[in-house]
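One record is given unchanged without comment:
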Amino acid sequence: MQMKVICEKEISGVMRLLNITTATGIDVGAFLRTTPGVGMPFWCWPTIPGGRVVATDFTDAPIVTSDAATNNQLIAAITATPQEVLTYDPPL
């Protein structure tokens, strides 16, 4: 199943908000170790509402670990909905 990963990653010295759709069948827990990287907050859901995501509240977001299995457990434990933590332009 594809997943939507919302995270921040430094690219060319600038922190960017990324909205990534993973390929079907990849280990998302392993993927998170490189994007966004260990120690970084993230959100992950099967789908999110359509539109342009311009900001994210990472206050209670899980933090990527170096262990793929632990990251997959963190994904499974996410209770926040996209509507609670994502900001869209224009607003939904």
Residues 37 and 64 are 7 Å apart (CA to CA).
